[in-house]
Amino acid sequence: MESFFIPTLVVALAEIGDKTQLLALLLAARYRQPWPIIGGMVVATLANHLFAGLIGSWVSSTLSEVTLSWILAAAFAAVAVWSLIPDKLDEDEASRGRRYGPFFATLIAFFLAEMGDKTQVATVMLAAQYPQFVLVILGTTLGMLIANVPVVLAGNFAADRLPLTLIRRVAAAAFAGLALYATYKALSLSGMLPF
């Protein structure tokens, strides 16, 4: 179950204060219809993370375990630093899909906003690290929903009261921990550790 719980926790923490969370807040304020927005988030996130997970699985099948561990260590360290930088929502991302209603507006905007985002990159890395592909995708999707559904349901109330700096630091620490684990694994596989 580690393939499910670790991705859920890591993505939920990384998503707090992310631009897609800001997008969820904007969509909730604009449409005031939470269930179509949540439905659009689910479909967009599953599609986006499935794509990212397939890339991660492909990478893990083409590289040696040692090389993959070193790449994962570097990538998790980079995402740890990236997690400390607050996101800002681009106006173009906020306006995409407005004419289609709440479900399709959310589907289009969320899918596009997640392209190249740290949670998509994290999904690639987690799918490369954990062998249970489906559990990783379900976990990262649940992590996105844990962070974003309360924002849609509670609107600005929840977003204004979250300690975003602390949450970004906890997310960075989680990614740093994954980087350390990947480094340990790379050193072990390389025979560089005496134990």
SSE diagram, text form:
Blueprint: H1 2-15, H2 19-31, H3 34-62, H4 65-83, H5 91-95, H6 102-114, H7 118-129, H8 133-154, H9 156-161, H10 164-189
Helix pairs in contact: 1-7, 1-8, 1-10, 2-6, 2-8, 3-6, 3-7, 3-8, 4-7, 4-10, 7-8
Q: Can you give a write-up of this model?
A:
The protein contains ten helices and no strands. It has 195 residues and is mainly α. It has one domain. The longest helix has 29 residues. The protein is elongated and about 60 Å long. The protein starts with a helix and ends in a 6-residue tail after the last helix. 45% of the residues are buried. Belongs to the GDT1 family. Keywords: Membrane, Transmembrane, Transmembrane helix. It is found in: Membrane. It is a multi-pass membrane protein.
Instruction: Kindly give the count of domains.
Output: 1
| H/E series | HHHHHHHHHH
Work out the helicity level. over 70%
Number of strands: 0
Quickly count the helices: 10
The low-confidence parts are none
Mean pLDDT: 81
The backbone outline, from C-alpha atoms, is elongated
Alpha carbon gap, first and last residue: 27 Å
The whole-angstrom Rg is 17 Å
Largest sheet: none
Tell me what portion of residues adopts beta-strand conformation: under 5%
Structural class: mainly alpha
Subcellular location: Membrane
Family: Belongs to the GDT1 family.
Pfam families: GDT1 (PF01169)
InterPro entries: GDT1-like
